[in-house]
Amino acid sequence: MNYKEKLKDQRWIIRREEILQRDNYTCRRCGCEDEIHGKFLILNVRHKYYMPNTDPWDYPGEALITWCSKCHREETILKILQELNSLFVQRMSLYKANLVATSKRTKAEYNQLSNDIAKLREKLRKIEYGKK
Ligand SMILES: [Zn+2]
Question: How far apart are the C-alpha atoms of 70 and 91, rounded to whole Å?
């Protein structure tokens, strides 16, 4: 069973409902209750962290929290932007060190960073403009 399938499992559906009830069917980040942001808003139960070899329903209550999809999306975008920023800084420092042309290893590193940046940008584009 992959992760997506696990989220359809009865055990997760029950666990998710418990957390939604505990959180009063309210987003714990922005406080909205539901459908405030339009018909696309649904409350999600989010894992604050991930543990190896643990099924989604086996997490303790403190690891799970109710967030609306708008907050979830904002947080995802923020994380990608932070990651992108860090990659840009790394790439710039390589560039400034002027090693790009002289060392094969550095060149490979530079290209790797550029690939990672392109991938993240694509991911961001998909989140912002929908999957196409
Ligand atoms: Zn929210």
Answer: 31
